[in-house]
């Protein structure tokens, strides 16, 4: 069973940066593909970024491509989301998730474990 804890959210002005971190508990962390999702008030949870279990493959939503970077450190059981040039539309609760799958996963139902989320607020 994988437990995930996000951190690094906060309030930032438009154009600023934040780095989110997701700490995983299980020693089997390196076998999981990892993803970041976000959910704004009144909206569906949406895919943000994906990274394969070794970190060799990444995939991004069009809305964040070129601004966000996902990475992982399997030795530290951590996955990161570097967010640059943030915009007010990036405001949401951000969740990390783990998928026991070798396929690229961009939908929530493909993920097996979820964190509690961290709030990101971007002011204009």
Summary tags:
four-stranded antiparallel beta sheet; 124 residues; mainly beta; seven-stranded mixed beta sheet; single chain
Topology:
Layout: E1 4-7, E2 10-13, E3 18-24, E4 33-39, E5 46-51, E6 58-60, E7 68-73, E8 78-83, E9 92-99, E10 113-114, E11 118-123
Parallel strand pairs: 2-11
Antiparallel strand pairs: 1-3, 3-8, 4-5, 4-9, 5-6, 7-8, 9-10, 9-11
User: What is the N-to-C succession of helices and strands?
Assistant: EEEEEEEEEEE
Largest beta-sheet details: 7 strands, mixed
Radius of gyration: 13 Å
Distance between the termini: 40 Å
Give the helix tally.
0
Q: What structural class should be given to the helix and strand makeup?
A: mainly beta
The residue ranges in which pLDDT falls below 50 over 5 or more consecutive positions are none
Helical content, roughly? Answer: under 10%
- The total count of strands amounts to 11
Q: What would the average pLDDT be, to the nearest integer?
A: 95
Strand content: over 45%
Principal-axis shape: globular
Model description:
With 124 residues, the protein is mainly beta. 0% of the residues lie in helices and 48% in strands. The chain has strands spanning 4-7, 10-13, 18-24, 33-39, 46-51, 58-60, 68-73, 78-83, 92-99, 113-114, 118-123. Strands 2, 4, 5, 6, 9, 10 and 11 form a seven-stranded mixed sheet that branches. The radius of gyration is 13 Å and the shape is globular. The protein starts with a strand and ends with a strand.
